[in-house]
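In response to a reviewer's request, we include the raw inputs and outputs for one of the modeled complexes. The two entities were modeled together in a single run.
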Amino acid sequence: MADHGIALVVNNEPVSTTVAGNRLLREFIREDLGLTGTKSACEDGMCGACSVHLDGDVVKSCLILAMEADGRTLTTIEGLAPPDDLHPVQQAMIDNFGFQCGFCTPGFIMTIVDILDKDIVDDPESLREDLVGNICRCTGYTRIVAAVMDAAGRKNHDR
Amino acid sequence: MTMTRFDYIAPTSIDEVTGLLSSHGSEAKILAGGQSVVILLRQRLLAPSVVISLGRVEALKGIRSSDDGVEIGAMTTYSDVSRNEVVNRVAPTLAKAAGAVGSRHIRNRGTVGGSLAHADPAGDVPVALLALDASIHLAGSGTVRTCASDDWFTGLFEVSMSEDEVLTGVTIPQPAETVRHGYHRFSYREGEYPMIVAAAVLDWDGGVCTSARVAMGGVGAHPVRLVAVEDRLTGSAVEAGDIDAAAAIASELVHPPSDVRGSTGWKRKVAVEYMKRALAEAARNSGNGHG
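The model returned the following structure tokens for the whole complex.
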């Protein structure tokens, strides 16, 4: 079976290449594009370490075939902000010590950006429910929640 | 484990999909949102030679109101369903069910059609659609047909759809103004697959329940309606005593499988409790003066 042509926009840059039909989007991102900020852990849709944005929606790249991204817009952690800059959510995670080992952090940040883009975050408890798709084994989540509330507060302040 | 190799085809029309299905037969597998199918491919529980993605078939997406009710395209995501104003007004049970699935990542990809075709025994959306008396629309080569949700689930992960058919959408009948809904699910933690799902859709007249549809998931091989419970509730005010009587009937009807999450006996108690909560919710909102 021949590979398939795929053309998409990755972090604002057009990409055109070929890929096998059974290639996962996560494998395509990490191994073919070399963007290793997207992590691979459970490989079963539970942990959220591989979270990316597809056409502006957060998704788990281990549950999507690369070919499903053909013609779409993909954003990974590397594309959230210019190379020398940080996205406000990245800065809030640093300021609030929202990570320890850091392995889950890119996935969390992609999810948090999706939440803050689409929803009003004013309650830490409902926020915790909204973070169920990402697992962290270091922080106990408290610092991550603090970082999101901080980022949400700054965003509201800037409005 | 890695997936077997397959060809990936992304047609843009329903006719193309049915044409591909008739030429590839059992070698083909339809990919909707993929949130279950990709896992099954990786586990090699599925090993198709052709994967037909529905992601580019625009005719399968979207939510429309019609004289018949609310039509939802098969490729409409859980996120779109749970946030849709019409669905929240007309079928709050479905909005709640769609909003309860997995995490926002899963809801952004998973679809109404995919959940019905996959037919997990404890799927949130299938249970809600069964309680809502939804009609399921299918297309084959040169044919279209509609299947009542009552006739849809035929076994464990089995539905009344043949290899050359594709699920195109569902219609939820326009409910009377007097219909009230209840929906409750149990899982150990948020985002986890539910162990028990209970949905109740009750119609009311002057404080008396005039018709009832009660559906449950996680209590057998596939989502089921509890018809004997519905019969007990119809004509009653669905007061505490009626709910207890319905619970006693339900306890005889549900057979949750024993697994790592619990024994059949314990799960049965959980199932009956969550059914009671769904009934109480549909009664509390009815203005029957109780609850």
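As requested, we also summarize the result in words. Chain B has eleven helices and 14 strands. The CA atoms of residues 207 and 289 of chain B lie 7 Å apart.
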